[in-house]
Amino acid sequence: MLFTSYEFIGFIFALAILYYVFPKKLQWMLLLLFSYLFYWIANPIYLIYIAVTTVTIWGCGRMIERNFATQSEYLKANKESLTKEEKKAYKNSKKSARGRWLLLGVLVNLGILAVVKYTDFIVGIFTGKGLGFMDLAVPMGISFYTFQAIGYLIDVKRGTVKAEKNLFKFALFVSFFPQLVQGPISRFGDLSQTLYAEHRFDWTNVSYGIERIMWGFFKKLIIADRVAPAVNVLISDVSVYHGAYAFVGMVLYTLELYADFTGGIDVTIGVAQMLGIRVTENFNRPYFSTSLKEYWRRWHITMCQWFREFVFYPVSTSKAIQGLAKFSRKHFGDNIGKKLPVYVSTFVVWFATGIWHGASWNFIVWGLLNWLILMVSEELEPLYDKFHGKFRFSNTIGYRIFMGLRTLLLICVLNMFDCYVSVSETFHAFLTMFTSANYSIFTTGELLNLGVSALDYIILLCGVLVMLIVSMVQVKGSVRDQIAAKPYPVRFVIWFALFLVILLVGAYGIGYDSSQFIYNRF
Amino acid sequence: MTKKRTVFLRVIVSVLLVCFALYFLQKLLMPKYVTGIVEGAFVAEYYEEENKDFDVIFVGDCEVYENFSPVVLWEKYGINSYIRGSAEQYIWQSYYLLEDSLRYHVPQAVVFNIQSLQFNESQNEAYNRMSIEGMEWSKSKIGAINASMTEEEHFLDYVFPILRYHSRWNELTEDDFKYMFHSPKVSYNGYFMRVDTRPVETVPEGNALADYSFGDKAWEYLDKMRELCEENGIQLILVKAPSVYPTWYEQYEQQVEDYASKYDLPYYNFLELTEEAGIDYSTDTYDAGLHMNINGAEKLAEYFGRILSEEYGIIDRRGNQELDDIWAENIKEYENEIDRQCEYYQVDKNTLYRYRESDK
Amino acid sequence: MDELLEILNDLHPDVDFTTETGLIDNMILDSFDIVTLISEISENFDVTISAEYIIPENFNSAQALYALIEKLEDEE
């Protein structure tokens, strides 16, 4: 069920009514019911996958929790009789038992993910044959809910959160439908606070939620779906669409990706807020970043956090890496020894991030390029600092805008890996931007033959301007708070205008191939 | 208390404003079918008839609404008839339009043109729209929508046509404002008139088909139509209009003949009766044989009207004051349109069959 | 404690680590700094801070970090 379908609107409308009419004790059960219904509509087979993940992670979580309990009971009961060493030995044995439960849960679930998502790819590497060996249907959102569930288990093992006793409540955490399709990847400690709570009908929540949903629809229907036909043409064939076309394709794809993904997350957060549930923000005006490093703190935040906390820190603080650091300190000097853990573990992180996005060389190369750029700019940072210290203009707004655009361009280029069928074709398309002398297409009107009319371009431009203005207003604080502070007639006009624009200008219905949200694939 | 009242008032005013605005927008954005493709307006026009006590109802696609002139049926035989047809109207749409008409009156006879049997699924969303959108809401309309929708369509788009036409805002013309709430009549009891002529020169040979048999869904609705007529004591008459193209295959003909004889239904294939009806393909068609012009439509009405009144006893309603008045008005409009079109297409009115006394 | 302050000052000479209590919250230390810091600490203190201890409360100030090191040393 697409977020922008009539069915989805009807679905959340029905849910919202039942949610506030039902006894509040039953609210979370209703959510679970609707979440499973949502998944069932997509494909009943998928339910098996999500149920297996739910039960295994829940079970491992319970075992770890029980382990904690016996440990503290035992230590309490034998407080006097045990020596310090005995206590330590006991604790360590318990801890490694918890580690085994964690490992079990993680392996089973990463195993499922690996089999459904990566078998074809790996078989392809060894046999040289293309895809289609297993041809398994990848369950909707499996990358997201698997990571969310694993994150929970690690949190339980670390003692950050208490394991959930109720299997069904835990099932809701894994399957909560607004974020099932494309995230955000919530932490149990965050989401559980409002997910299971009883919620009274609250006009602020409901109106804020609806505003947020409409804003998501605006991005998706006015911008993403309108630009999609052109992007699909532009990236279809490099031999035809090279040079300037590739450039336009890259820029428009970056626009589409932003509008599509952040719009989808807006709908997710809006739906949750309508129900009184707080879902973590996933974006923080990412295209305003002035460096790639900053961008990765502001784009797809929950995924980056996940990789940072559950891959980057564990790897970089692991015995192996720390040992390696010590070794190289001895042999190659302090400087390298100090940096080595960062380099090696970021490499691991970016390799994993790449492969998480999809089973293809494109994403692997994309991830490693990100890594390379981040490391190079890390190395060059002292140089930058010197440069910025020397020249005054580096503090001006103009220079910041320059850095922002430079970063955005870099992101555009990296996004190309998402567009083309292979790594070599991506590089080829990139190179043609410098070798093809077809930049005259900007003046000859060729860009109007891509399935996007002049009017569409005007609408896109206006849409981008609106997004830009909203982002700038947002710097001062929540846009919806600012709207809420206005008198009712003004609020009404804003709501109605937004609604009408979506209704009339939105690219939906016959003639528009309402494309899937891009991030569904991952 | 006052706070509650302001909130209440706000909600009421806001909801009313939104509903009004959307209603007006919808009216504005929906296609008007007044100029150009007027076929889209036919289905809705039926409801404007004050007296719906018709004795004969024609259902079908362009092969009925361009090929029979109800005015002539009245003038010659006193037959009070109406054509419920629209462009490429599929058989399930014909069925539901008939069912819809029965809500108002039960005719003596229903004439169905079997051309659409060859389609087992709706082929085109635009035609669905033209056939269904004009219907007033009823069980029949819901049935028609459900039977017709192509994969890309959605029921809600019929309930709120603004969802379908939302992007028409950049193609609005003066007509859209002018005819927002009311459009002028474009048909004559469902008949679509053309006075110009383009003779048949060559008849293209039909391509061989892999399978000539009509589909299950098509048969299902023919059965339903037959049963509906039986239940209501209506004489169902099957016809094939004398359009020479698209090709009416021998294999098609055989299936219809078999069906007709199985259920004892009359079937007239006017392709084989052109001589009797006096159809002249050099003067009686405006598009080289796909459809009749006014000459052909009047000749067919004359010929078929005799059959209707003599063989099926359709009563002569002339003399009924109310109907006489209505038809006098209809005929006036009909002739005005002839004059208008003669001027537009630069046709000498006296060459039309209607005014050629010598032929009669 | 002085040893720790030295390491921190090496990392960010422009920050006064004796008073700052929002190293993470104010985004003074990023993830790369934290990892570098941990490997420096493991070099100088002979404790390895594992991932589960990397939470803002432990890294927001030099005091908190020192307390963590002491606690871990005690457990070793």
TrEMBL record, chain A:
Which GO terms label this protein's molecular function in UniProt?
acyltransferase activity
Annotated keywords: Acyltransferase, Cell membrane, Membrane, Transferase, Transmembrane, Transmembrane helix
Q: Which GO terms describe its biological process?
A: alginic acid biosynthetic process
Q: Does the keyword Nucleotide-binding apply?
A: no
Keyword check for Transmembrane helix: yes
- Name the family: Belongs to the membrane-bound acyltransferase family.
The protein's name is Membrane-bound O-acyltransferase family protein
Q: Which organism is it from?
A: Agathobacter ruminis
UniProtKB/TrEMBL annotation, chain B:
Q: Which InterPro entries does this one have?
A: SGNH_hydro_sf (IPR036514)
Q: Which residues cross the membrane?
A: 7-25
Q: Which UniProt keywords apply?
A: Membrane, Transmembrane, Transmembrane helix
The source's superkingdom equals Bacteria
- Name of the protein this chain belongs to: SGNH/GDSL hydrolase family protein
Q: Which organism is it from?
A: Agathobacter ruminis
TrEMBL record, chain C:
Pinpoint the Carrier domain residues: 1-73
**InterPro entries, alphabetized:** ACP-like_sf, PP-bd_ACP
Protein name per the record: Acyl carrier protein
Q: Which organism is it from?
A: Agathobacter ruminis
The root-end lineage is: Bacteria, Bacillati, Bacillota, Clostridia, Lachnospirales
